[in-house]
Amino acid sequence: MAKLWGGRFQKNTDAKVDDFNSSIRFDQRMYRQDIRGSIAHAKMLGKQGIIPQEDADKITAELARILEDIEAGKIEFLIDAEDIHMNIEKILIDRIGDAGKRLHTGRSRNDQVALDIRMYLRDEVTEISAMLTHTLETLISLAEEHTETIMPGYTHLQKAQPITFAHHLMAYFEMFYRDAGRLSDCVRRMNVLPLGSGALAGTTYPLDREFVAKELGFDSVSQNSLDGVSDRDFAIELASTLSMIMMHLSRFCEELILWSSHEFSFVEMDDAFSTGSSIMPQKKNPDVAELIRGKTGRVYGHLMGLLTTMKGIPLAYNKDMQEDKEPIFDAVDTVKLCLPVFCDMIATMTVRKESMKKGAAGGFTNATDVADYLVKKGVPFREAHAIVGKMVFYAIEHDKALDELTMPEFKECSEAIEEDIYQAISLETCVNDRKLIGGPAKETVEKAIANAKIRLSEMR
Question: Can you give the pLDDT at residue 4?
């Protein structure tokens, strides 16, 4: 097949080179964006008198028909045509002849590709943002059900202080809320029109770049033609944001995997989100959570791959940059695969409230509250800390929880302790006395949930 760029060449490219050079296998997904961009470009060429208006009208009408035919499965893309951009242009020329040959006036594949990938990723971010919003809604809904579900909080994976499951869930709300903000910021920097940059030095044609930007929903046009065609910061920034989303998913999945073990028994995954063993009939494996955890590394790898691809490329465009698409496309696909299944998994899991509370009752999670109790009785904090440390050692030796110590045993540790110690260090008191903003008290978490709903509504 004759190449659209083949005028100066005296022989055909090797068949292996055609296959090696082609990107149609993965960039064909951008056909909608490519056609939208070409329609806007053709309209502008006609408006500016750069090509006859009649040809511009033919081009835009036929591109619309090509889009319909692609959607209907009537078009098969060719490896020989290299990429989605050349495939569509070739189809256009085959159908309307010389008028189609005028489409590429004032445009290079370099700025065309830069346009298409920005538009494609912008559309994908819209979908991911909607999924992230659903994730935030799911976390809020779960939290509302568990403002009184007491569980142990951990540091170093050692039991630390009692909290509620709602408080724990709302920590992940904050993480994913920040992710949503990062996506929004990413799109703001992505939404700059590169078309008009040409191959690297713009063009002598009187293009109306602002018209095209408005047609395609861009906020502004790029201010430097070299940067316009060679910038892939937006793809790297998106890959970084997607990596953080996956990191947050993975952290929660790691906890769910631990919590669903017999040793914890805090949660049980629904049968629809679990698998069994081919040899051990008793097994119920949290494979969905494990796969999300595993796929996180995959997205991290794409971020590192993009950074490595771009790190040594001189200005402006180089063919290395064709390697930007597969990693960012797969990173997008992976996040879009993980978010919905994660939401359904946590929405259907069984929360074992009694196991969580039992877990909070062990491990001396109320030790800090004993120290605070002594401070309120006038004991200096460092002295109180030492007293409670010895008290814990005594309780371990006698296989008791702190609230199981008798009053004489408490008095042996400190004369400042009175009968009100038992109420002061109950799990409910330990949780609900922590009323500061950001704390686990029921009333505080309920306020946090109400505030989260407001913040979420402002995102829409």
Answer: 56
User: How confident is the model over 236-283, as pLDDT tens digits?
Assistant: 999 999 999 999 999 999 999 999 999 999 999 999 999 988 899 888
CB 167 within 8 A of CB 443: no
Quick check: is 261 catalytic? no
Please say whether the beta carbons of 347 and 169 come within 8 A.
no
What's the confidence (pLDDT) of residue 82? 80
State the residue for tokens 């302790």. 417
> From CA 72, how far away is CA 31, in angstroms rounded?
13
Pairing assessment for the beta strands 158-164 and 150-155 based on DSSP bridges: antiparallel
- State how far the Cα of 249 lies from the Cα of 335, in Å rounded to an integer: 10
Which listed residue (156, 262, 278, 457) is catalytic?
Answer: 156
Beta bridge partners of 162: 152
Q: Can you tell me which residue has the tokens 């920005």?
A: 118
Angle between helices 109-145 and 233-259 (to 10 degrees): 30
**d(Cα 218, Cα 411) in Å, to the nearest integer?**
72
Does 156 qualify as catalytic in the annotation?
A: yes
Give me the catalytic one of 141, 184, 220, 277: 277
φ, ψ at 162 (rounded to 5°): -75, 140
Number of helices and strands in the chain (H, E):
20, 6
Closest CA relative to residue 169, chosen from 140, 130, 203, 129: 140
Contact 339, 135 (CB under 8 A): yes
Q: Does 325 or 24 have the greater pLDDT score?
A: 325
Closest to 429 in 3D by CA, of 378, 370, 388, 363:
370
Give the contacts of 260 (CB within 8 A, at least 6 positions apart): 266, 267, 268, 269, 286, 289, 349
> SS3 for 164?
strand
- Diameter of the chain measured on Cα atoms: 101
Tell me the mean pLDDT in the region 300-313. 97
- Is-contact 200 225, C-beta < 8 A? yes
The confidence score (pLDDT) of residue 11 equals 59
By CB atoms closer than 10 A (0-12, 13-18, 19+), residue 313 is: middle
* Dist CA 410 CA 421 (whole Å): 9
Residue 63 contacts residue 92 (beta carbons within 8 Å): yes
Residue 280's alpha-carbon distances to 63, 132, 260, 274, 277, in angstroms, are: 58, 36, 17, 14, 5
Nearest to 154 by CA among 365, 392, 353, 432: 365
